[in-house]
Amino acid sequence: MRHLRSRAALQATALTFSLVAGGALTTGTASATAPVTQQVTAPDAAAQVKKELRALEASFKGRIGAYAIDTATGRTVGYRSGERFPLLSTFKAPLCAAALHKARTSEPGLMEKVVKWTAADLKPNSPTTEKHVEDGLSVARLCEATITESDNTAANVILKQIGGPAGLTKYFRSLKDPISRLDRYETELNDWTAKEKRDTTTPAAIARDLRLLTAGNALQAKDREQLNAWLVANKTGDARIRAGLPRTWKIGDKTGTNGEIGGANDIAVVWPSGTSGAPIILAVYTHRTVAAADDAVVARTATILARGLGRL
Questions:
Q1: Which residues are the signal sequence here (predicted)?
Q2: Is 89 a known active-site residue?
């Protein structure tokens, strides 16, 4: 009986304690393959992250949502991590993952397929596709432009290859993500209000997706390497998460921006060792009533998250 009581006590000690408040700070551990209940493991660090992000949020005069996962330890830390924010262009990272997955599982040759569009299809911020209206580009080249330059027309063309916005939402569900959703194409998906659920995610949901795609087994190894290479080559994120972390760290990211709602987002896979090892995953989403995106707030949030994970 004493042995059974002792064993029961040990099991009880191992139970997960969840933080479920809507805008609350969350810390804990997360599985490498699927979302699990979050565990409170570092209350002192959690309290400090909460204090710093609340102060930053007050000075920002808006809302900050953040979530970070250390894939080496499983430890997580977050703030407003369960609240919805507009995806903006951060959807383009899982979009290209969906294309890679489709090419690998159901449509061989998709990435080499050359797709064309018309001048009428061009959207603002399409630096690559505006030069190739006549000859088109391969889906792989379109993915490169979508992630590294946030080319909006390229993203729309790829979306049509995977079944449109509904196709990407279906892909989110295949990752066991019941929250993230895409409902519209560029650039309509950027039209967003605080009550809008369309084209949204939560920091925790998208961070878990990014973990599966860049450090987990959601993609075949070569496809995972390709996605990470595109993210590392991104040209739009130097002032955001990258700016808040040491320059020696290897970082791949995808930004999202809508200055009209003060929206500045960034999701990233980060290798603190510089070249290899288990990465950390960060997701930072912001918005406010002031019509101006604030890169510095995203950078500062990244610093706070990395410190909360014990990496700084």
A1: 1-32
A2: yes
